[in-house]
Design a protein that fits this description.
It is a single chain. The protein is α+β, with helices and mostly antiparallel strands and about 475 residues long. The chain has 2 domains: about 5-100 and about 145-315 and about 355-475, Outer membrane efflux proteins (OEP) (Up-down Bundle); about 100-115 and about 125-145 and about 315-350, Outer membrane efflux proteins (OEP) (Single Sheet). It contains 10 helices and 8 strands. A 4-stranded antiparallel β-sheet has the order 2-3-5-6, with no helix packed on it. Strand 7 and strand 8 form a beta hairpin. The chain starts with 5 loop residues before the first helix and ends in a 9-residue tail after the last strand.
Amino acid sequence: MFKIRKPLIFALLFPLSSGCMVGPDYQRPPTAFQAKWATALTNRQVAGQETLHNWWQSFHDPLLTSLITQARLGNRDVFQAEARLREARANRDLSVANILPTLSMNASASKNQPSTASRFGQAGQFASAYNQFSHNLDASWELDLWGKQRRSIESNEAGLEAAEEDLRDVLVSLYAEVAVNYIDVRRYQNELAVAKDNLKTQQESYDIANWREQAGLVSQVDVLQAKQSVENTRADIPKLTSALEQAKHGLAVLLGKQPTELKALLEQSAPIPVAANTLAIGIPADILRQRPDVRRTERKLAAQTAQISVAEAAAYPSFTLSGSIGVEALAAANLYTAAAKAFQMAVSSAWVLFDSGRIRSNVKMQTALQEQALGLYQNTILTALKEVENSLTAYDQEWQRRDALKISVAVGKEALTLAEQQYQAGTVDFQRVLDSQQSLLTAQNQLIESETEVASNLIRLYKALGGGWDVNTGKPAPKPNGTHG
């Protein structure tokens, strides 16, 4: 398929470059950034920017890497973004075609029969029926003296670049969503395992309490309390199972698959992935080149700036060159003879002298849209900085919380073991065992939740930084098999 390349565009436009270009020339708005992030990380090493391109590999989980690769190939949002990119490319090519001459070829053959009233000419000669044949090549070209068409190309070129950034933004979000959903799957699997382990322990405690009640060592209250603890934990299992299945189904949608297609891949439980203790955070100024949404809004600002010029050019006269060269004859045998040659050349112009302020109003409207695009661009930068700072804080603080919860779980296990031994020895009542079991279960669930949040916050941080594609090549990050999105 024929594609118009940028060098060809510039070569075609060069002869017109001396023409006047009305309207404002676009310049990227200057942005001042702070030198470093406001959040100071605790005991974290800074990794190279290459880590940001394929951040999911820092979790060292082959299945996660495989799922992200599958999502790149099957996700429906990516499919739509790629279609929007093709649409933008075709729109750019259409604007390029508008600045070039239009050539057309036509051929005709006709038989003419004059009316009775017109059969006698001025010389009194009889006008009979006659044939007419023609074969012409016609051309027309509207001169782009004021830059209207060139500004349209400029606008659509920026629109194409915005569509490219939109695709990258979809990929950045997709990779993060796949990873977060995968982390949730592992979370619920681990919470189910903890619930089942605690159910087994509580069942053993119930058996002991039942045996001691039959031996007359404790009252039936201990048996009832142990039974209540068992059933409360048993009641959590269906809820966790449902949450696990929903997480799997959500992951399947992100991959563009049906729920049953991921069943075998996620059947086996596994620990929550833990990333390496290094971060590729860079500096705040990197947001301009790393975040696709920032780059997209900047390109939309450029596109809208060019639209002001397009609107202003409508106030100036337009000039069109047209011509036709071909052959005409009354007999087909004479059509391609020297005497049949014919040509026509014309220059036409048009200038709107009065339009009740339509052009002026359109310029004002396009200017207002440009100001809106500027505000959106500036707000997108501020939002990006906020998301990074929030993610840095959440990640660092959750890391510290997780370390404390690890100690809490270890202490809780020792306390439960001691309480069980003392209960069997008859030195404490069963309430001490129940309290120890409940405290341990709470601490274990909190630890799983914290491990999930540590991983999820790191994923959100890399998403906020624009991770998932190579800022040097402008292409999505390479997949493990060496292909590109």
